[in-house]
User: Fold this.
Amino acid sequence: MKVVVCTKQTPSTTAVFTVNNGTVSWDDPGGKPNVVNPWDEYAIEEGIRLKENHGASDVIALAVGSEESKEALKTALAMGCTEAILVSDDAFAGSDAVGSARVWAAAINHVSDAKVALFGKLTIDDNMGVAAMMTAQKLGWTPLTFVSAIKEISEDSITVERLLDDGKETVTAPLPAVLSLVKEINEPRYPSFMGIRKANRAEIPVWSAGDLTVEGETGAAASKVDWSHVYTIPPREGSVTLIEADSVEEQAKLLADKLFEEKVI
Amino acid sequence: MSGVWVWVENSNGTAATISREVIGAARTVADELNEDLVGIVFGHEVSGVADEAFDLGVDEVVGSDDETLAHFRVEAAGPLLAHLAQEREPAVILIGDSTQGNDLAAWTAAELDAGLVVDAVAIEVDDETVKATRSVYANKLLSTTFVKEGLQIMTLRSRAFPQAESTGDTGDAEWVDAVVAEDDIPSKVTGFESKEGTVSLTDASIIISGGRGVAGPEGFEPIQELVDVLGGAMGASRAAVDAGWIPYEHQVGQTGKTVSPDLYIACGISGAIQHQAGMRTSKVIVAINKDPDAPIFALARYGIVGDLFKVVPALTAVFKERLGK
Assistant:
């Protein structure tokens, strides 16, 4: 059974952003401004576990993005994915969510015989978590979102636990399936030293639009969504009022007064 | 294309809290566009939900009452919503950004090749277009996002919009058949463990969170007592979750939940930028921390520099007395 892990390169979680004339740039005090999308680490880990514990033959990491996204794929390889492929073409740049799903569906189809595709719950740059569902719809595969545990998996069926707003759902569905994973599912491993060395030497193939059969339009021109206006969050008004008094009991009373005045209790 | 649609998520025969918020926002959009507001009610034995939707201010209800829709599955609800939208061509569909709503919006937009905007925290109508404010780049920046052609599908963040109020209005719903038979729905739900009875983080109007400063699992006990007195929900920073003191479902922040309660009390939380990303839209933030230089104080409206193990029990005692508990 082949498993595909869908990843994206995003700014690091500690990145500091600046916006200049609508162009977003970022830097990282830790010196690593770009990382594999933090949520995708759970997908990479779960893919590797499907190989280790459930006999998956291949765990293939895909990333859609520019040449720089090879760094994200190297993380996937260093952790233990068996293969990594970059999907990159100017024709895909600036796609909206539907356009991106078309690219993912085409790339997953191009990995022939894949049975499972794994996504992280959301991507932190666009703050969207719809890629798994949309890709499932485009492929005609079973969608299983917010998955917190894979309970059983066979050649043609999967049972998962989904963490929903109002409870935990257990669902059995046929494969192939596209899953989005929440953090509860596992604890991603750190890449081993040997893994990192191997990943650094790996040749990462690139699939472009000509290699894939993409159904429908992609790219900025076909996008139905405009998100060009990006700006910094205005600072919160006012500064903190420190509650000071002779005793903790007195402080608690003063704070309670304020909170009743604010009508938040 | 005409009409503003609002999906009325429901369970056990009543509209979900988030639906009340979305109906409130959708009413404003419909009025500004001079369009009718249509409530979409899917489920089983949901005539009461349709009545509730009329009462909350929708002009029409299109519903489907079918066993296949009893427990939400996107393979049943998605094709039905897409079918209705193709047939009747609404201009706008607004959906609450719950786990169900996110699934439904994504599936339907993909099926219809429609523009989708998710997780709006504010909206405004500009001519014929609904423009959303949403957080991007790990909640560190904002973006104005909108659908520029065709059907506009949009999800709205929980607790970002005021709930619609009761109007006393009534009406007759139009009921349509489901479009997918049970045999054609591949997913079978074999178990459901409800969280009913506990206050969920995203719905809570009061959240009290603990961080590294609680120093261990037992450190959450005084916080729990304050949570119980105030009827709120318990949150936590990533540090506390990673240390194994409290389960992940309590985590607030970039890799946890994004919340916007009326009151957020951060106890022993320094306020790393990743934590701020998940709670900075809270209405009133209170920080309790030993370290006067903790970044959380820059975000807070009120602060107490002190030992949370003294301050939190003192607060619990005051509120017990004043709330008569």
